[in-house]
Amino acid sequence: MDKIAASIAQIAAEALEREGADPRASADLPAPVMDALKAWIADQPEPRPSVSEAVRLGLGEWLSGKGYGPAAGSSGE
Questions:
Q1: Contact call for residues 56 and 69 (beta carbons, < 8 A)
Q2: What is the SS3 assignment for the chain?
Q3: Is residue 30 a part of any domain in this protein?
Q4: Residue ranges making up the domain that contains 55
Q5: Could you report the per-residue pLDDT of 22-77, keeping only the tens digit for each?
Q6: What are the distances in angstroms from CA 50 to CA 18, 44, 47, 65, 70?
Q7: What pLDDT shows up at residue 28?
Q8: Distance (Å) of CA 44 to CA 34, 48, 59
Q9: Residues near 59 by beta carbon (within 8 Å), at least 6 away in sequence
Q10: pLDDT of the residue at 27
Q11: For the chain, how many structural domains are there in total?
């Protein structure tokens, strides 16, 4: 599950970067990214995360993996 969330976050981050989106701003995700995110959410056990929760989780894990945030499960989450 963590690898899938990280993959979704990477796809979303790269798509937003290609679009020139300001990462601090709320942005619409490109349709293929949103479709992947919704598919990942549908595969999760109940209670399923919301889109916002899934993006926060995936992006947080991806950034942590790149050394830009606390490790998953640390007190910084």
A1: no
A2: CHHHHHHHHHHHHHHHHHCCCCCCCCCCCCHHHHHHHHHHHHCCCCCCCCHHHHHHHHHHHHHHHCCCCCCCCCCCC
A3: yes
A4: 2-65
A5: 555 555 788 888 899 999 999 999 999 988 899 888 888 989 989 988 765 554 44
A6: 25, 11, 9, 22, 22
A7: 76
A8: 16, 6, 17
A9: 9, 12, 13
A10: 58
A11: 1
- Please report the pLDDT score of residue 20 as a whole number: 61
d(CA 67, CA 22): 20
Q: Which residue do the tokens 């919704």 mark?
A: 38
* Separation between Cα atoms, residue 73 and residue 66, nearest integer Å: 16
Q: How far apart are CA 43 and CA 75, in angstroms?
A: 27
Distance CA 32, CA 67 (A): 27
Q: Is the model more confident about 16 or about 76?
A: 16
- In the block, tokens 């399923």 appear at 48
Domain contains 14? yes
Instruction: Tell whether 72 is covered by a domain.
Output: no
